[in-house]
Amino acid sequence: MLNYLEKSRLVLGMNARNLLYVRPYNPKEARKIADDKMLSKKALLKANLPVPNLIARIRSLKELENFDWDQLPYSFVLKPNRGLGGEGIVVVYGRNKKTGNWVKADKREVTVEDLKMHIRNIFEGTYSLSNQPDKAFFEERVKLSRVFKPYSYRGIPDLRIIVFNRVPIMAMLRLPTEASGGRANLHLGGICVGIDMATGVTTNAISRNLATQQDYHLDFVPGTRLPLAGIRIPYWKESLEIAVNCQEASGLGFLGVDIMTDRDRGPVVAEINVRPGLSIQNANQAPLRDRLERVTGLKIGTTKKAVRIGQDLFGGEIEEEVEETTGKTMVGIFKKIKIYGPRGNMAVDAKLDTGAYYVSIDEDLAIELGYGEALNIFKEYFPSYHAAQIFPDRPIEYQFEAIKKIRDEHLDEIVARSNGLLKKIKLVYSSNGLSIRPVIETKIVLDQVSIATKATIVRRKHLRYPVIIGRKSLRSFIIDVGLKKEQ
Amino acid sequence: MPNLVELAINEGVPVETVIYVLMYPVILTIIAFARQIIGIKAFGIYTPSVIAVAFLATTLKYGIAIFMVVILVALGMRYLLRNFQLLYMSRTAMMLSVTAISVLIFLVVGGVFNRTGLASVSIFPILIMITTVEKFVVAQIEKGFRTAFFLALETILLAVICYFVVKWEAFQILVLNYPITVLFIVLLNIFIGRWQGLRLYEYLRFRDVIKNVELPRKK
To answer: Does residue A350 contact residue A335 with C-beta atoms inside 8 Å?
Structure first.
């Protein structure tokens, strides 16, 4: 219970978001700019950030009456200046050559009259916060990137990146679906997919059950077998850099940046949000407050550094993702393991070596584990592990034949005398000649997986790791050479 | 403050009015608590609080009935008006008008069935409930129909809770004799307004995230 409370303290709730982050870090003037799409477009352009190009503005009924509709291109987007949650946006894809009407995403046609009506509704404040009178504008339509084509229904997906203290701290991909009517908002039934900050690869996807208002996990694009995890976001680093620069340009300390990827232009900033939603935590299965607290007070020089810090601090979830999809556990090269012998078990450092095939353990460790007696018996027959020391000045072929002869004659005896602790004796050619290795049967526990295995005993005093684990015992693992050694 | 209560009553202010006015801050505090600590959103703070007061005037039974009528009519009107492309103001005007007339018909029907309590409901509580329709329409545009519906349910739930608190006799006596109690309750808002923890509802909303949190290893 206490543990649960401690854990929940790292999750960002509405109260903490508003009290600790939105209000103290987002000054009023900056909020004003962010809530006004035309103003924020201007501010971002001034900072040389990519935004969808403005086609025209309509700020009054008079401007609406005098508007030259033929100046509009074949495809465009009509937006309310202070629209909320994607409401009131009309996306036009082309023009019907016969009727001269525009065509929307759902193939329905719109006339000039329809657009005028919609704009008057925008003026009335139908789509704005607390119904304040609003303005309308036309902007260039962002074209769907090929990468996202299979994943989106009608609309354009966007990236939401949360930036705080210049560090990008969490991100998700929002996909429009049939259920959401081609819009990417979670509360309308869109899909949100968490993203690993380091690699820009998607991890866990959620959608919202509109009846219960609860977020639930999903694996595939609805109606397909297309996995939502593992999508590589194009222009990932560039998008993170844009998000960081948006924070500076907007004057907000804590914000959510929405970035769309245009087929031709690459990333463009669709919107900046003063109060980014909290479900991004569900999409990433990771707590925000923890991340916010970790970057609070950091002094960061350049944008590139800010991005690197975000990637280093908050990346890494992908590792678990690979484990989930392959069913294999990911481990580093060096690992603490448990090894069993007649005298009980010991925790030791092991090296996972895919160049080796079997497990081999150091003589001293074998003695500690209780194989001392057995090894003494072994030594009565073979005074050294190295054939070259038993038969010096002889060619290696001779050594092999001679050792083999001793082994074949005495193996049963050795096994019996060691009470079955020694199972076999192996002759192995290696860089320092022919070596003779007694084989025991043991059990090791590696990352909570217990593996019964045969192991050869060698003298490896000069090596740092008393146990080497070879390929034969590593079938259920993936080895990541980049993983740090455990403490 | 006790003198103020006495003075008011002596000067002819009805006791009921005094109680309701003194209780209003309590209602507001309950709603603030529900939002910040529990996570019940409802239609802001004003709507549920005035609906609670309206319930006091209409009695709970008729209050809820009128509220239902208002919401159902608003829902029906939404479908009817969908095909007329109307501007927001005109659309809302039509919606509110039809709702008002429907409430009148409802009251008449109540009278016909000898529900005199229903027929004699005064105009103000009715108007208050009709204003909910606008909130409902706005929520529907901004957040979608389902969310609006849930917000309406939460609003009525909050109003009912507030109604019972205000109707609680022992509490009424306490407030009348020691109006200072109200001051203390209002001061609770300082605590509520600074509460940084998760709302109860958020424990549910983020349950999977909480489960997955990795606590930093203790040194």
So the answer is: yes
Residues of A in contact with B195 (CB under 8 A): 15
| Tens-digit pLDDT profile for residues A314-371 | 987 545 555 555 667 778 888 888 898 888 888 888 888 888 888 889 888 888 888 9
**Is there a contact between B152 and B132 (Cβ–Cβ < 8 Å)?**
yes
CA distance B172 to B187: 19
With a CB cutoff of 8 Å and minimum separation 6, the contacts of A475 are: none
List, as one string, the DSSP characters of B11-60. TT--HHHHHHHHHHHHHHHHHHHIIIII----STTHHHHHHHHHHHHH-H
- Residue A182 backbone class (left: φ over 0; alpha: ψ -120 to 50; beta: rest): left
Cα–Cα distance for residue pair A103/A311, rounded to 1 Å = 42
Could you give the 3-state DSSP secondary structure of residue A331?
strand
Mutation to test the B interface, candidates A6, A8, A113, most B Cβ within 10 Å: A8
CA distance A257 to A254: 10
Contacts of A194 (CB under 8 A, 6+ apart): A171, A172, A202, A203, A204, A205, A280, A283, A284, A285, A286, A317
User: Is B88 close to A290, i.e. CB distance below 8 A?
Assistant: no
Q: Please state the separation of Cα A168 from the chain's center in Å.
A: 14
Give this complex's ipTM. 0.80
Least Cα separation, residue A470 to chain B (angstroms): 31
Nearest to B59 by CA among B131, B119, B101: B119
Q: Looking at residue A323, what is its pLDDT?
A: 56
- Quick one: tokens of A309? 């810090």
Residue A133: phi, psi to the nearest 5? -55, 145
Alpha carbons B112 and A130: distance in angstroms, whole number: 41
